[in-house]
Structures are given as C-alpha cells and as structure tokens.
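Notes taken during the Thursday session

The instructor put the following on the board and asked us to keep it in front of us for the whole hour. The protein is PLAC8 family protein. We were told not to look anything up and to reason only from what is written here. First, the residues (132 in total):
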Amino acid sequence: MVTREWDSSLMDCCSPCGTCVMAACLPCILFGKTSERMNNPGQSSYFALNSDCCIFTGLGFMGLSWIYIAIKRTGIREQFGIEGSQVGDWCTAIWCPCCAVLQQDKEVVSRTEYAPVTDGYKIQGGMRMEDQ
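Then, after some discussion, the predicted structure tokens were revealed:
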C-alpha cells in the first residue's frame, strides 16, 4: 500500500472561504457533509443533517466532539492511505478541531471529486402529442 500525505495542510484553513466559515461557526454541518461524502462518494448532492451531524452536536454539548472528529479522521486516513497515527489524529482533534474538520472535508472532496455519479435513475415524464 502506498502511503501519502494529506492533500492540504492543517493550517491551510482559510480557503475556500465559505467552508472555512462553516468549519468555524457550524462544524457539525461540515462534519455531517463530509461523512455523507465518505459514505456516498458518487452522489451529486449531500445531505448534511444526518446521524453523524447529530452525534457530533450531542457530543459537542458535553465538550467531547473531538472524540468523533478523531475517530472519523483515522477512518479517512486509513481509507486513503495517508501517513500518520492515531495519536496524531487524537492530538489534532483535541487541539485544533475546526482545522481538523476543514482539512478532513477538503481531503474527502479532493479524493472523491472524480468518483462516478451514482444517483439513481429518475423517471422522466411521458411524451404527449398535442391536438392541432
């Protein structure tokens, strides 16, 4: 297995601006969106208010959302063959959770960007002939 680095630095957290603001103000939404991308990489749109978002929020009320960040970070790192360790994942999640959530999202976006679209078939309306 080839080991790789993260595509974006942990401190490269100011771009894109909208994602940066979301990571700082509503990290639960960005976390849910990232999890949805991981679970369904071929979807054309992602529902951010999912179970991962709710778990993240619940843990956040107890000051423990960093635990879920670290667990997901390890999963992302292992799935994409990124160098690192669980200790590094936990330290990053504890001391820089917003930057970690943003880096994880950017990583999943960059590595699943060209995944095949797997949205289900949508039935088209029938054809009708107009009376003349």
